[in-house]
């Protein structure tokens, strides 16, 4: 499948075929996509919870009740559901952990590179914490970068996917014990095999014209 084919074929699946499980090698590829997602100054302010069992999906589904009950089948009937989460803060311990990993992976070749990277990243963190005061929004943007890569990766593999903001974040945080870990949920993605009830598969894509969305200079 070409990239053009994938972006045209990709759509938000409205119904999954229950009881069908994606091959583990495909899941590993998608986890690799998430693991290597880009983030501003390599801040990596995220965590991903992967539900691959009925029990895991049921825990996720605790957030799709009430006003969000329409999303419950998309969680329960999927093969895998991933909760993309963000940190509640980028604290010193996280900054030290990222820096140590970069050092272990051999990213600091030039003299002073490690200190320079640490100073630069901390300056961005401080800017968003103190001047712009948009730390949660900044971290959430990084999670959405990971979401885009995940959806495109799934499309390239021919995997059906549904991104969902329609869930109770507080309920999911409780069900997964996220807040005790300094995390909060941002978006869910269900992955699996679409069923014949997926009406969206037969509908054409609809986007504004290229003239509306592009300016060439």
Low-confidence runs of at least 5 consecutive residues: none
**How many DSSP helices?**
9
Structural class, from helix and strand content? alpha+beta
Radius of gyration: 19 Å
Silhouette? globular
CATH topology heading of the domain at 3-89 and 139-202: NADH Oxidase
| Element-level helix/strand string | HHEHHEHHHEHEH
Under CATH, the homologous superfamily of the domain at 3-89 and 139-202 reads NADH Oxidase
Count the strands? Answer: 4
> What is the second-level CATH architecture of the domain at 3-89 and 139-202?
3-Layer(aba) Sandwich
Question: Which percent range describes the beta-strand content?
Answer: 5-15%
The whole-number mean of residue pLDDT values reads 98
Q: Give the CATH level 1 class of the domain at 3-89 and 139-202.
A: Alpha Beta
> Between the first and last Cα atoms, what is the distance in angstroms?
32 Å
Task: Please give the largest β-sheet.
Answer: 4 strands, antiparallel
Strands side by side in the biggest sheet: 1-2-4-3
Helix content: 40-55%
Summarize the structure.
Residues 9-193 form the Nitroreductase domain. This protein is α+β, with helices and mostly antiparallel strands and 217 residues long.
Can you put this structure into words, describing what you see?
By secondary structure, this protein is an alpha+beta fold. The two termini are 32 Å apart. Strands 1-2-4-3 form a four-stranded antiparallel beta sheet, with helices on both faces. Helix content is 45%, strand content 13%. Helix 2 packs antiparallel against helix 7. It has helices spanning 3-9, 24-35, 54-61, 72-76, 92-104, 113-131, 135-156, 169-176, 210-213; strands spanning 46-51, 80-87, 160-164, 183-192. The mean pLDDT is 98.
């Amino acid at each position: 499948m070409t990239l053009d084919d994938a972006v045209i074929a990709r759509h938000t699946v409205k119904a999954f075929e229950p009881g069908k499980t994606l091959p583990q090698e495909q899941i590993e590829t998608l986890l690799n996509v998430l693991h290597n997602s880009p983030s501003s100054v390599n801040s990596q302010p995220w965590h991903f919870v992967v539900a691959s069992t009925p029990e895991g999906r049921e825990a996720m589904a605790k957030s799709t009740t009430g006003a969000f009950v329409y999303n419950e089948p998309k969680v329960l009937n999927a093969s895998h559901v991933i909760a993309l989460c963000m940190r509640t803060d980028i604290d010193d311990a996280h900054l030290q952990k990222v820096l140590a990993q970069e050092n272990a992976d051999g990213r600091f070749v030039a003299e002073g590179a490690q200190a320079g990277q640490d100073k630069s990243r901390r300056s961005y963190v401080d800017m968003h914490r103190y001047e712009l005061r948009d730390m949660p929004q900044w971290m959430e943007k990084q999670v959405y970068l990971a979401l885009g890569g995940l959806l495109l990766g799934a499309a390239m593999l021919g995997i059906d996917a549904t991104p969902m903001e329609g869930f109770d974040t507080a309920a999911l945080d409780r069900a997964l014990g996220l807040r005790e870990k300094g995390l909060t949920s941002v978006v869910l993605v269900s992955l699996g095999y679409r069923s014949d009830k997926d009406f969206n598969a037969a509908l054409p894509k609809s986007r504004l014209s290229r003239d509306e969305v592009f300016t060439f200079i």
